[in-house]
């Protein structure tokens, strides 16, 4: 198929006509009618949204914002806007008012879709300070609206009748739609500075869909669980791919419920970030450590068998009847139980957002849950490189996808070129020019490429830390190792211009309190628990084990346990959970000084 045939609205229209009454969208634990939306209803609802926008006077390429948790309404609104050739501007549902107002003003959005009561209240305040914003549409029909003709419930909007001329105009816009139309502005918060609006057009997404089609075993009817935020390019781009391929997308409004949702939904696939996999891995390791020695030995044997079998599957080892029989036994006794925790029918799991520790990656490959690590960014419409079922090297992010080129530049910076690379930053011509070098996007990430073309991420170039002894440390590598501990929720290391590495650690309090109770520890408050000598010793021993593979200069020598998590509200993490190191170091300057004896 030509790239023009992969235009998103046309692909989804084609699936709607072919699949009709089959389920396209499902709201996990949502009430009717949003618990299940058929393909034909999806098409008619999104068409109603498009007619409403035209009725409101929206022109092609006008901007529309969405501030909401994941839901079928989110995607119906998204596709409805795209049918009118509008530009959709997602806003993180857990973001601050300041971030939202900046985005609305910069994009000059005229309408905002709000999810629930909290989002509606923020939307009302935004209309007071953002001159461009006029219309507000709320997904949750239980929200009481202000007495304002420009405020609407989504359910009412899609039930209204619109003049025939809106449908005539919609047909004209669908006919005029082209790959050079801007599809979305996604504002990347970054770890420093103001958010920048990444301009992604229909060509970017059409190319993404076509390329993914060539190497992913996704088939019509497959179920995908959307639990990462749709406001991020990873989940939204993946949802576009799922729906373009005739898949069944299940929306999780509360990401904290993912453990229960996976078991109930039994997805064929879902996008995850490394932290999700680290938590699953650490939970298994913790359970095994408490099991009888006979079960521990069984687990070790099964993992060895699984590793050898996965190497056979990758063509790196020769197959044997004995190993095949051992694997079947290991699968029956161990792996099948582990896979049930993940729903029992996963075909593959795309993972991105940060580097995945090779040990964690190897664990999932061994239990026959294919984790496909990829590398990309908002500026590359997510995936630039990706592992495939036939090529999974632990620690790598795979080869460049078929129509994308990668190479290494100065300081081993990863450079990317292809149809999925952004048009530029909205209203920022100079920053756009600075981000490109002879047509190649400068990612700001450092890496290496092996003889088979597999990309390995070493770190963010700007985040490399140089100790006072002249040694360079990649913080994400150290934090990834330490983050595998079930007792550690978040960690930020300190090393730049220091003579040894220290860490600020946020414990997993729920698990720590269970452990403390088992040990008979007495404490009056969380602070007292964190300062308890047995707790300090417990973390010291954990760190010693976790850092066994690190070089001496990379290892954390001292640490401070913190009573509060790094949060977006405090300005310590970005919406994509990246650490704002400068802000963290400023907030905890006293604790850091104490670790260096000052």
Automatic annotation (TrEMBL):
Keywords, comma-separated and alphabetical:
ATP-binding, Nucleotide-binding
Gene Ontology cellular component list: membrane
- Origin superkingdom: Bacteria
Xref: PROSITE patterns:
AMP_BINDING
Residues of the AMP-dependent synthetase/ligase domain: 16-426
A single Gene Ontology molecular function, please? ATP binding
Q: What is this protein called?
A: AMP-binding family protein
């Amino acid at each position: 198929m030509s790239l023009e045939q992969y235009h998103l609205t046309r692909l989804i229209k084609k699936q709607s006509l072919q699949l009709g009454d089959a389920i396209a969208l499902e709201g996990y634990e949502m009430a009717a009618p949003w618990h299940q939306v058929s393909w034909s209803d999806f098409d008619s609802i999104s068409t109603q949204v498009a007619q409403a926008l035209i009725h409101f006077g929206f022109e092609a390429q006008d901007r529309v914002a969405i501030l909401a948790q994941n839901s079928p309404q989110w995607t119906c609104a998204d596709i409805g806007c795209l049918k009118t050739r509008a530009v959709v501007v997602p806003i993180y549902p857990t973001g601050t008012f300041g971030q939202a107002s900046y985005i609305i003003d910069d994009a000059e959005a005229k309408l905002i879709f709000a999810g629930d009561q909290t989002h509606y209240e923020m939307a009302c305040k935004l209309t007071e300070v953002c001159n461009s914003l006029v219309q507000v549409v709320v997904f949750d029909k239980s929200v009481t609206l202000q007495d304002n003709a420009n405020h609407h419930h989504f359910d009412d909007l899609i039930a209204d009748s619109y003049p025939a001329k809106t449908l005539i105009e919609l047909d004209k816009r669908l006919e005029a739609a082209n790959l050079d139309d801007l599809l979305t502005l996604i504002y990347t918060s970054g770890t420093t500075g103001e958010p920048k609006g990444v301009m992604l057009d229909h060509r970017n997404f059409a190319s993404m869909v076509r390329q993914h089609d060539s190497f992913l075993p996704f088939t019509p009817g497959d179920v995908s669980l959307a639990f990462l935020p749709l406001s991020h390019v990873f989940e939204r781009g993946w949802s576009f791919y799922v729906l373009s391929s005739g898949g069944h997308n299940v929306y999780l409004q509360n990401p904290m419920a993912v453990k229960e949702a996976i078991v109930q939904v039994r997805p064929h696939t879902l996008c995850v970030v490394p932290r999700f996999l680290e938590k699953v891995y650490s939970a298994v390791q913790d359970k095994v450590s408490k099991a009888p020695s006979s079960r521990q030995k069984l687990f070790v044997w099964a993992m060895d068998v699984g590793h050898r079998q996965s190497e056979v599957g990758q063509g790196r080892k020769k197959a044997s009847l004995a190993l095949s029989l051992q694997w079947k036994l290991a699968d029956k006794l161990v792996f099948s139980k582990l896979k049930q925790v993940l729903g029992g029918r996963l075909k593959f799991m795309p993972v991105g957002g940060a580097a995945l520790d090779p040990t964690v990656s190897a664990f999932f490959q061994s239990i026959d849950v294919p984790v496909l690590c990829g590398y990309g960014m908002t500026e590359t419409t997510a995936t630039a490189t990706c592992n495939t079922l036939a090529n999974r090297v632990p620690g790598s992010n795979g080869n460049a996808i078929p129509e994308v080129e990668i190479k290494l530049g100065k300081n081993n910076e990863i450079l990317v070129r292809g149809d999925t690379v952004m048009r530029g930053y909205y209203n920022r011509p100079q920053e756009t020019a600075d981000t490109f070098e002879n047509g190649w996007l400068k990612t700001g990430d450092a890496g290496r490429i092996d003889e088979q073309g597999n990309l390995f991420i070493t770190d963010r170039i700007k985040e490399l830390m140089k100790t006072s002894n002249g040694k360079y440390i990649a913080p994400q590598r150290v934090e990834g190792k330490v983050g595998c501990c079930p007792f550690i929720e978040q960690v930020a290391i300190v090393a730049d211009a220091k003579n040894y590495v220290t860490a600020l650690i946020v414990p997993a309090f729920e698990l720590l309190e269970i452990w403390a109770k088992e040990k008979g520890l007495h404490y009056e408050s969380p602070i007292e628990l964190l300062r308890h000598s047995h707790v300090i010793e417990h973390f010291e021993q954990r760190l010693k084990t976790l850092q066994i593979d690190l070089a001496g200069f990379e290892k954390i020598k001292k640490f401070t346990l913190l009573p509060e998590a790094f949060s977006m509200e405090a300005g310590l993490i970005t919406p994509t959970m990246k650490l704002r190191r400068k802000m963290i170091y400023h907030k905890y300057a006293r604790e850091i000084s104490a670790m260096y004896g000052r």
